[in-house]
Amino acid sequence: MNKKRIWLRLATSMAILFVLAYLVKHDMRFLQYQNDDIKTVNEWQAFALADLNATHNAILTAHPGVIDPLNPAFKEWTETGYQQALKLIPKVMSYDTAMSAVRFYTTGFLDGHLLYSDNVRKNYPVFNNGWKIENKDESYIVTATAEKWPAPLPAKGSKLIRCDNRLPATIINEDVAPYVDRRDNPATRARLAEDLMRLHLSGNELKRCQFQSPAGAVFEIDVTYSSSTQEQFFQLLDEASQHQWAPRTNNFSLKNGVLWIRAANFNLQSAATEMQDLEKMLNELPSLRNAHQIVFDVRGNGGGDSRIGVKIFNAATGGLRYDTRNIEQLPLQYAQWRVSELAISSITQAVERAAKLHGAQSEQAKETANFHDELKAAKLAGQAWVRQDAGHLITRADIEKRGGKLLKFNGKIALVTDNQCASACLDFADLVRQVPGAIHLGQRTSSDTLYIDIGQTKLPSGNLLVLPLKVWRNRIRANSESLVPDFILHVDMKNDTAVYDATLTALKMNERSDITADKH
User: What SS3 state is found at 251?
Assistant: First the structure.
């Protein structure tokens, strides 16, 4: 997801005086930000309230969880969470704090597919404390500091011990997660630490923090919040990353019998480049020879269209085949789409995208258009749901019992994931992991709820609410379940060379252990 621009904007000189008086009253360590283009606190609170009310209404009218008889907790948070978020409106005094009030509500659903965007950020400065921390082996280390800060800052490499008699993990859980992401998974926890630098709601400011310097000396500093421009803030946020992601493309290499397939992009945007690259890869994979091992590498893949993953898997392996006799005895997998105006408008856009990307006469475009007609007919008939069948629920154990094998490949299969793998990436991981004998390496994945396939609606501010439109039944993965690898790779997952070497080493060790076990 691209980072949006962050700024805070207030509106008249009288508003500045009002804000400063408010900050002094609440013992906030802010420095005055001079700007001729200012919004008043009352305007920011109205901004937050309008978006919160519209978010609540959109969820009531379009989210499947509200009418899901199997998840009463969803409907409960829809109302109690809304009431709790309303109580945060008086703590709004800026763009970021307005975002936090709304996101307190949306993050309470614990769903990575339910998001409040920030499309309307303008030249609003970001109030922050000037130092970024990252969680490294359960320690919280300062990895970047702002330039020309008007108060002392901890040195890079310093370890954060506590602030105001609270441990860093406690501060992150209480003052950051509710306004950013409350999900308990590795990807979320890895990101939350760096958000401690930003002020999420007035009244949540840190006052005094204790650090340990790289040399071992313990020291304390008062925390001073000031404003940063958009460029300054994101430069600070992006500092200290040794390796950046390579372009998220779909490609492959064949070396020493190992067919390494990068399946990093399931969210194609361009028919001229990305789609052509994918088609070229799909055409070349079936003709490859001399591969004794296939590694599917999905690092950096955050989701998109699950059908792309199936195409890549089938092109490389021929697909998974097994005895289907009496398969009807297994449970059916299916999804229920909630019938709503948002679902219909979202599928209308999906029809246009499919035609543009694949062609108006393509199978994808026709399937999407037919489903669009189903939704419209259901709306006219007053139906609450449209069912979408997805075959039978079959596990790897079931496939092994049914003599499962790949149609065009008889070597070893491996999967490499990082902690960003979600949505369609997880669907692909489920597919690969079903192959008998497949090995999963890397990091524990992210997770999805049973609510998926998103639509978006514009809120009064111009920001977007993104929310799921359907619910899965009998999915192979449980609600919010992460996938845990057979082998954890303790390397920088952005470093291609390190991941490649560590993966092959682990696979060789596993192969030797299998041989030893067979001998015994």
Answer: strand
